[in-house]
């Protein structure tokens, strides 16, 4: 093949640039005008005062309520990526558009009016409100903390509404392992759950390649590791047991199973859920757990429920939902 | 076909002192790399966000997807070099690599969130990157006279880095314009990647520079790497020095820790080093050509040692500027210069394969160095680990200055120059 003349080559390249540029521009414009659900506030009639199961509706990304099994869904809550509510307050985590990723943590009152808004770096991950509604915690995934730049780390905040005091990252909390202070640059906390006294809390800490269940004290500002391989704890309403996800295999598809730990005996047992659970479970009552699983039939996720004592069978509670929170 | 202006056998010798032009093929390859890097860095910048935020993968799954193919690239690179040497099909092999990477963006676009398809697309991208690197560097080295290789590689690396700096900006612009439509980033990246392939097809000559073009049908030497003692020395020295580099990310982390800077800066610090690299790549290459590539290569590592030393002192604001400058200079004086140092020691017919061996050896050594430093950090803590790294690098420098051939290797290749 003879090389084309410089003129022909230039014409070829210019044509290609024009074609590819218009293709790019066309796609960008198409993406710009595509229908996408805008972040919405809640309808005036939707509150978190009514009893029922509150959850995120995967279809529109807004919070909805179901008053009982088989009852119709009440829609009209705010758009959130993660949600939790208790004691007359709600916590709504929303990822903000743009790069780098940021998360807006909205604290809402029982009529879902904004009480406080905090913007933190990262991607929404966990949200919890204490039973009294006075202490809140959230976790985001962030990039850039780790020397392995592609890896994610977590950042967990605790907000005390009684004093208004906000700790944007609890990473500096003095942590002990078996009574000895643990210092390391790689500690990561996530998935806080509060006890009824609004002071004690449980969380996950990851350090040196292992995860641990830690018990923390807000007033004393200290934390101690209790047990290895327990993530995303969730304290039962009576405060005796912790539901958590336990890593049972190295398979990246479903490494975790749902377990329940009795805090008095420190004995654990698996819940009757055969699938991998990557969620912070919620207690519907002292005997029942609810959690999100990857959805069936093309849904993003479904909420399932299983007895906490390890008996029985898991049951599909809300198709197309996540972030369950029960208001009794 | 004699497209390259330089080194034509019948060209009259240029008057000494006149500024030589950079070979057209090098400029073309630089342009291809620039455009391709815009394309690939666009995707790299948004991929973690897309996979975790857009698709809801857990970070664990993301880490698995991301790390899955890293080991394989080393092997693919060797394969790419070998393929290119057979019958001198450098352009075709490099072009196939560029095309594969461009098509992988289309794969990401069409995968629609299926993890298997995304994994396949990422694999195609890494495969393409592995295949094209050695033939491309061989083309650069064959496109100009051996005595100005440092400058040729400097020009190429400067253009390449420009693309790498522009890529994330382009990605963020697209995300901003479309309110986080990741698919639009993939679409634009695909179009940009295709343009890179087209530039290669149209502007890069099919046969490398006539000075050293292997005969069509010439078989690559059976063991090009082990045969030449000069090349072997370059290989050993670069691997030894590579094993004592601790990885840029650690340096950035030490800066952030030392000054208690916000983690957002972690993404910005590499830009600073890249900007210095961009500015110094061409001058460093020219100086290396004039005063000896061996010296420049060693001096570059001295700059890295200087960066370690700066970090051992109390960290202050000027430290950041100092470390980033030294790191940028380190890359400018070593990256392209190493290729220019090694290329003349390799026969033209085995050049792509030889450069592939060199690059793979250096990459593996650096991986080892970073892992070792990470282990030392965990075991001994930050300062002792850094002291150990500095002492190791100083030792390696002393050894490398003995290992590296004392005479510039391009003089040994003098008979090849017409």
Automatic annotation (TrEMBL), chain A:
Q: Where is this region: Disordered?
A: 300-328
Which superkingdom heads the taxonomic lineage of this protein's source?
A: Bacteria
Protein name per Swiss-Prot or TrEMBL:
WD40 repeat protein
UniProtKB/TrEMBL annotation, chain B:
Print the keywords alphabetically: Membrane, Transmembrane, Transmembrane helix
Q: Domain Major facilitator superfamily (MFS) profile spans what residues?
A: 25-408
Tell me how this protein sits in the membrane.
Multi-pass membrane protein
Q: Where are the transmembrane segments?
A: 50-79, 161-179, 185-213, 234-255, 261-284, 296-315, 321-342, 363-380, 386-404
By its UniProt entry, which Gene3D superfamilies does this protein fall under? MFS general substrate transporter like domains
Where in the cell is the protein located?
Cell membrane
Where is this chain primarily localised?
Answer: membrane
Instruction: Report the InterPro entries cross-referenced here.
Output: MFS, MFS_dom, MFS_trans_sf
Q: Which Pfam families match?
A: MFS_1
Record-given protein name: MFS transporter
Q: Which organism does this sequence originate in?
A: Streptomyces spororaveus
